[in-house]
Specification:
Structural class: alpha/beta
Shape: globular
Distance between the termini: 24 Å
Helix content: 40-55%
CATH superfamily of one domain: ATPase, nucleotide binding domain
Largest sheet: 5 strands, mixed
Number of helices: 11
CATH class of one domain: Alpha Beta
Order of helices and strands: EEEHEHEHEEEHHHHHEHEHH
CATH topology of one domain: Nucleotidyltransferase, domain 5
């Protein structure tokens, strides 16, 4: 029996999944951050070693029984970083064949039945990547670089945009918004003068939980909060158009996999994204990722070993979800 290892390493956690050659999920393990940008390359090795040992122990198999691994790691953004990542992976004890990709690619492979298309990620930050129909090419935006690269539609960016609306009310550049009262109540500032000054002097740091206030204020009908969410959807759609153009996918039927918590926040984001995307991809399918991205790592490992991964995909998803419920 052959066994395959998938790893999804992000800025706050690392997941490992072990499955057999039939796509039967056998073990799921959780560990600490799996991005060198957060813990350095030594810390990356330690996180990988810990989560791999956990998974193999749960599966009751030895490292020598693993045929291949598929790893998606946040912070692996450029070819020039590959050597350092491979060295860190080897230091974690992975000596079998492997495939290394950016973590956003795992979500695309896990979410798109055909294993190609476009992934749009929006969580704390945002990203967008794609795989060509023949699986031979990848396309991308810079990758979470922020405003200078036109990639500013994650949770932190939504919050900053909302604070801009509050500031525009304060300096009379824009209309009143219920976001102001929501942020005043959250921070405890007595008025807008104190709030804006406190944010400027960093007495009131942006709390990620404040993004939920933006969603709630939009649900209550505030026009400025709703405009912030439309803006985020348009930005995400624009990123996807760039990837679609790079891969020449416009006239093809393909999947656009939506990954990250922001897509659960308010329907206006998806609505604006879809409206932006349709002219460039009129027959694309929007799919919300509802399986752990680490499933994509196992599928990559199978592909690396010459196994027919698509035929195992559904069974792998079903058994992984069952495993997570136990």
């Amino acid at each position: 029996m052959c066994y395959f290892l998938g790893i999804d390493g992000g800025g706050t956690k690392t997941h490992a999944l072990v499955a057999d050659e039939n796509g039967q999920a056998m073990a799921f393990a959780r560990g600490g951050p799996g991005s060198w940008e957060v813990v350095g390359y030594t810390g990356l090795s330690e996180s990988l070693r810990d989560v791999i040992n956990q998974a193999l122990e749960i599966a009751r198999i030895d490292p020598g029984q693993v045929s291949a691994a598929g790893l998606g790691l946040a912070g692996f953004d450029w070819p020039s970083q590959e050597a350092a990542h491979i060295q860190a992976i080897a230091a974690a004890g992975i000596t079998y064949p492997l495939r290394l990709v950016n973590d956003s690619v795992l979500g695309l492979i896990a979410g798109a039945p055909a294993g190609w298309g476009v992934a749009i990620v929006s969580g704390t930050g945002c990203n967008c990547r794609g795989i060509s129909r023949d699986h031979q090419r990848q396309a991308r935006v810079v990758g979470g670089a922020g405003h200078w690269s036109g990639e500013a539609a994650g949770g932190a960016d939504i919050l900053a945009r909302a604070m801009r609306a509050v500031t525009f009310e304060w300096n009379r550049r824009g209309p009143e918004t219920a976001l102001s009262q929501a942020f005043l109540a959250h921070t405890g500032a007595k008025d807008l003068d104190e709030l804006v000054e406190g944010v400027y002097l960093e007495r009131y740091p942006f709390d990620p939980a404040m993004v939920l206030l933006v969603f709630e204020t939009a649900r209550q009908g505030d026009a400025q909060a709703q405009e912030v969410l439309r803006w985020a959807g348009q930005e995400l759609g624009s990123m996807a158009i760039g990837v679609i153009n790079q891969l020449g996918l416009k006239d093809l039927v393909f999947d656009v996999v939506l990954i990250g918590s922001i897509f659960d926040g308010h329907p206006l984001i998806l609505e604006a994204l879809s409206e932006t995307l349709r002219p460039a991809a009129p027959v694309a399918n929007l799919i919300r990722l509802n399986v752990p991205p680490v499933v994509g790592g196992v599928l990559l490992a199978m592909e690396q070993a010459g196994i027919d991964a698509p035929s195992r995909r559904e069974h792998l998803i079903q058994t992984t979800n069952a495993l997570l419920k136990t």
